[in-house]
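Shipment paperwork, digital attachment
Item: protein structure file
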Amino acid sequence: MSFGGEFPEDFAAVLENSTGHRSTIGCVIPAYNEEESIADVIEALLKQTRVPDVIHVVVNNTSDNTVKIASEFAGPHELQGEDGEQFTEVFVHDIGKNPDKKVGALNYGYSLVEGCDYLLGVDGDTIADSRAVEYLETEAVGDSRIGGISAIFTIDDRPIKGGIAKFLIAGQRTQFAAFNLQNLLRGRNMAVLGGQFSIFSTNALRDAMKQNHQTTPWVKDSEVEDSLLSLQIKSAGYLTKISPYARANVGGMTTLKGYDAQQVKWTYGAIELMWPGQRGDTKGQPFHPNLRLRWFENFGMLTNLFVRVAFVVLLAGSLSIDAFIFSAWWLIPPLVAMALNLRIARTMTHCDNRDVMFAVLLFPAELFMWVRLGHFLRSWSRFLSKKKVDNWAAQAKAESGGGSLGHWAPLLLLAAVLVAMAVVWTLIGPVAQSTILWVGWPIVGVVTVLQTVGMFAKLLRRHHGYKV
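Attachment content:
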């Protein structure tokens, strides 16, 4: 496999100076209703150039044929690879009803592999490239400061069918690409060692557990167990990294309801970690280095919400009193956004025509931003209301086709606010209307200019040959 571009010298040095030490890797696959993907996940692991020494499939709360399908792979495997014969053994554990869900499955798996040098966590719908484990192990062994390292993850859009599903997957591919690229350009410091495909030093896990007075690496009181563990590993003095080479395809959300539930859970959990003070058993760490990117993301979403809603309101107000004057300067922000989206798309290793069209047509990306703004509002409103909701259960229900219609709530709220503002607008006099427009447009203009400058800076930033 060849790699173009000018990757940072630090990783190249790791590959060149790697020792011949044979570490031990225990793989843990938490699986919940993964009958459609679990066979491909295990097969991809058995085809690795560096096969894990042991693979534990931990099935929990399942109601489908995950156990039956996974059990077909159970037992010892002698495999012939590029570097000779390899051996591994696959174990399938059905732990039945588990109130701690994925966290409980992960901790059960940890108890089985804690004697290994590394724990490889793999989601039950993640298909890894054939050299992913090799690359992760090479870098982890080459630098004892690394507590965990994540693969670059994306979604394989080739089997996706249906208009809405294709639209959502295209948006998620762009979203993941931007997130991974940001982490790569920040010295490859990974904000979140995602459960999709990450390797952890068991020494780092033990140190994090000791420092936080825990008996297990993952705790059940956080909506984002992987983010919290990443913070703890970083606080224990280790590095959390992202590999520029290791890659894996993850399962994407193909329905609005499922995508909303997933994003609300992720965003809610991130807010809980960011928020100062104590919320339940989770202590907020607003100044933690791993959360800087989260703060930028939330501030960016707030800015996007303000600019879009304010523009719609001011435009409608201007048209209602024949005060609208078009300016060609207004075309600059969407053109810069299109160029930035296209550049991000071109950084994808397997960029296709759908990714390019999503970027350059503007409307799909803009519509996807409105969908994400809905998740943003629902997450913050749920967090500030202090209403206890099992977001894990909500996501599981949404993915299976159940759940409420809460994902439409932000749209209905926006419509209600616009109607109320329209009524108020008709009741105030011409002088007040003109004053609002006179003050509002410059404010929106200044914020938009600053936002555009930020996008332009990202557009010009060197990517150092990284491909996501």
